[in-house]
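[Automated response] Your request has been received and processed.

Submitted sequence:
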Amino acid sequence: MSDNNLRPTPAADLARVIESARRLGIEMDEADALQWLTAMAAAQAGGDVVMDTRAGVFGHQVTMLDFSPAQLEHYRQIGRLVEFADVPGVVETALALSGSAAQSKIQTYPGDCDYFERVNIKAPTRAEACAILANLMREKALNTLKGPTYQLIEVKFGEYPFDVVRGERSLKAGAPIGWTAEEIRAGRIEALRPDGSPVTIRWEDVAANPGWCKLDWVVADPTRGQLANASNMLDVTWEAPDGSITPLDGYLDPYFQEVYLDAASVPIFSKLAQHVSANALDDYVGQLQKEIKKYLRQDNLNYGKVAKRMYNVFRLTGRYAEAAFVRELFDEPATVLYQVWSLIRTIDDCCTPGASIAREQMLAQTDHLIIQVIQALEGDQESEIVRRLLRLRDSLTGQEAGQGLNAQAEAARAEVINIVNNFFYEKLTALPAIKEYLTSLQPD
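Generated structure:
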């Protein structure tokens, strides 16, 4: 997939990128960039998956270059909340970090705590495997609904069997179903058909087509005084008695963006990895490009998400000089606002009736956000966002749970994402090769 044969030499590429970075006021260490490029070349020439024996983690060669074990115990602690337990002879699992958490060496200001878990279910039939999964997910959700330091927000499980209306949202048949904590507890969703007639969707009724399986929590770290959204996306497979492996959603996910947290998971990972499609890299890059297009649309514009996905495309397709440039952006002070933007949503998620996250923890998080903004910005931009965050803090101090936060939270988020968008757009489009790439992906 690389087009390096048609482009300047790597040394010339890097020199051009470094010059562009300096012109934009981005500190880019030439020695560090060369070291990273050398490591990337070695990773591509070496094996596929590598193990960090000291830390007890493993993953794709390219992914491991961006992972730092410095916060490993923190991620393992949250992992104990989100992970599924093995059931001897029936269920075997492998939990991994994904997203910005798997790129902790370069993403100084990561967003959410994203996890990915391979869940292999051994059963006589697919129907029985689906039933086991349905029980596992509901039991997991009910056991982690809320506690002093966590709160379940939503579970994705099953697909709508027909068009429905939920509140103000019209949802098409085949769309993933999002379950609230109360709906999971009840085991059913009350909705309307498009003609207004009531309909009940039961948990067990959608088990045969589990589709996109994902669980989302808000977690609090009392020691750090910080909140975070934590998610666990499942890739579920059925292993038949003859040893054949079938993904329950029809597709076995590749492993180009995962750092597995337990060396004991190597056997299950190795067994499943054999069944990953030979076209997995092309498919993965294609999916990332679709996401980039989505975040380039004016109604969904988010250049921070574009940059994160573009970095993965570049490093997996041989465009290492452009990847080296983008990775430098993640360490710029202004990119802390990407984390601020994400954490405002986290606070908003906590403010629901019956929330278990203490108000003191939300206040501490808001204070932390204000300090981050002051350190990252100056002038009118700083004043406006701090003003919004102070109003957000006031609403937290005096409000009843679930009331009075959304307007202030969304106003602050809008201010922040506007600055994040402007920062990434200015920097990314200043490099001709990246600007050309973005132009090629602009939505029609």
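Summary generated for your ticket: Residues 57-276 form one domain. Residues 153 and 349 are 7 Å apart (CA to CA).
If you did not submit this request, please reply to this message.
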